[in-house]
Amino acid sequence: MKVIDILTRADKPVFTFEIVPPLRGGSVKDVCDAVETLLPFHPAYINITNHQSVVDYVEREDGLVEKHVIHKRPGTVALSALLQYTYHIPVVSHVICGGQSAEEIENTLIELHFIGIDNVFVLRGDPAGGQKRFIAQKGGWSHATDLVRQIGNLNHGHYLEESVRNPEATDFCIGVAGYPEKHSEAANLADDIRHLKEKVDAGASYVVTQLFYDNQRYFDFVRAARKAGITVPVIPGLKPLASRKDLETIPQTFHVDIPEELARRVRTAATLNDIREVGIQWAIDQSKELLAHEVPGIHYYTVGKAKLVSEVVGVVF
């Protein structure tokens, strides 16, 4: 079932979550264990992330430096099929611009279509590891909007190679990301919302937000999006804080603010378990307030911490 149909037919807010593929050489069992931790709470669908390759520079024996490009988390398409058909739950496969040409992306979309994955989540993706700014692959896309249009064209049977005979139209439901505290590269929030509207106008059916820890940021973001003419569902995304180090890494990685009260509670917590209890309780309080405001659902970023998410979901769903 398509995500937009799930959202529009649901008689109450839905619970969804996101899984990261294992590092190269890792076990798929870890992914399945995480999914099985959260299955008892009846998720409406599961997202599988996608990651651009990392650029690494290795010194050779002759003293010269050699550039290596490594895809550290492969397997998004295979995991999408495994989870959807093992657990009989819709899976949303992430598709990114980074590191791929438009033709390579089309090949991935054809594979997803063939295996019956008809929900995709479109992102430009972060800069490749070792690079300060995003650089599109030759023949690829610089913006998520371009990728949304490509998928929309496939949904109408328009492939990159115009000579394709009797083309079969795909039927993807497209989700895109929104940023309540604006994308790090946007000049301001208004400019960022303008870009979001372009993605929706290009064919996106719903929005999932970047994580945030102050619900007012989400409420203000949705209000501004509606004012800009964005009418599709906007699902809030949450991630429980899990360590004291998160106070540094989350703002750096996701460009979001940690509320002063939350930061104080984490800093004064005595043990790691105490810190995790703080993060869980904050996420529970956030979730309850969001549900009271009749959000269409809540999307949780597990990032290897499915147990923490289960502690939150077990209380609020």
Briefly characterize the structure.
This protein is of the alpha/beta class. The chain has helices at residues 3-9, 28-38, 76-87, 102-114, 144-155, 189-202, 215-227, 246-254, 260-268, 272-292, 306-316; strands spanning 14-19, 46-48, 54-59, 65-70, 91-96, 119-123, 173-178, 206-211, 234-238, 297-301. Helix 2 (28-38) runs parallel beside helix 11, helix 5 (144-155) runs parallel beside helix 6 (189-202) and helix 10 (272-292) packs across helix 11.
Task: Provide a descriptive summary of the structure in words.
- By secondary structure, the protein is an alpha/beta fold.
- It contains eleven helices and ten strands.
- The protein has helices spanning 3-9, 28-38, 76-87, 102-114, 144-155, 189-202, 215-227, 246-254, 260-268, 272-292, 306-316, and strands at 14-19, 46-48, 54-59, 65-70, 91-96, 119-123, 173-178, 206-211, 234-238, 297-301.
The structural class is alpha/beta
Terminal residue distance = 21 Å
Count of helices?
A: 11
Beta-strand segment tally: 10
Reading the helices and strands in chain order gives HEHEEEHEHEHEHEHEHHHEH
Overall 3D geometry?
globular
- Chain-averaged pLDDT: 94
Radius of gyration from CA coordinates: 20 Å
What would you call the quaternary organization? single chain
Q: Sheet with the most strands?
A: 8 strands, parallel, barrel
Q: Which strand order do you get reading across the main beta sheet?
A: 1-2-5-6-7-8-9-10
In terms of DSSP E residues, the strand content is 15-25%
Which ranges are low-confidence, i.e. pLDDT below 50, for 5 or more consecutive residues?
A: none
**Helix-residue proportion:** 40-55%
